[in-house]
Amino acid sequence: MRDMKDKNSKNKILFSETDIKDIVCRVADEISQDCKSMGINSLNVICVLKGAFVFAADLVRQLEIPNINIEFISASSYGSSDVSSGNVKLGCIDNLSIFGENILIVEDIIDTGNTLKKLTEQIKSFEPNTVRVCAMFDKPDRRSVDFDADYVGSVIPDEFIVGYGLDYAEMYRDLPYVTVLK
Ligand code: 5GP
Ligand code: MG
Ligand 1 centroid vs 50 CA: distance in angstroms? Predict the structure, then answer.
């Protein structure tokens, strides 16, 4: 197997480490400004595992909000294929204690929209004060349900990407850049 971390590999890099840093800073700034203008100084960040773990870790360190709490839940719909099954499984969601809280859901990528639609519906059933959704990447051409995030790092074409937390069959999450899976 080709070593994708090899800087000389011929993979087309869609987002370099520098591109990613710029995107994260921009999104963090948008979120921080919105919280400030809404008078929100406590935020409950819900990181959707596994894909969003890298993005969430970078994002929370750039947010300028006084009190940040981080929760993790898991969502899966893909199995080991690169085609969405539309059958979303959510884990650890029953343990959340978020009544009256200000929630920011952090996800890696929006594809069909099934995961985030189901997840936000469930989160809202806990009656938090506010719910906002942030996704690092968005593939709007692939949407099969009506869903839009409040904050999007970058809109991308209909291609299957890996790296920066995103996997194919549990591989490539560790790549510091984002590339298209060939
Ligand atoms: P949705 O429910 O919106 O169809 O799918 C969302 C989930 O599918 C994402 O959280 C991610 O795990 C996976 N996914 C969608 N598109 C891609 C992609 O291009 N690359 C990878 N690695 N995962 C994807
Ligand atoms: Mg995911």
Answer: 11
Residues near ion ligand 2 (Cβ under 5 Å) = 51, 108
Q: Give tens-digit pLDDT for 4-37.
A: 776 556 678 999 999 999 999 999 999 999 999 9
Give the strands of the sheet with 13-15, arranged side by side: 13-15, 178-180, 161-162
- Closest by CA to 70, choosing from 80, 83, 58, 82, is 58
From 14, 47, 108, give the residue whose CB has the most ligand 1 atoms within 8 Å, as the site to mutate.
108
Stated pTM of the model: 0.93
Which residues, at least 6 apart from 158, have a Cβ–Cβ distance to it below 8 Å? 139, 141, 142
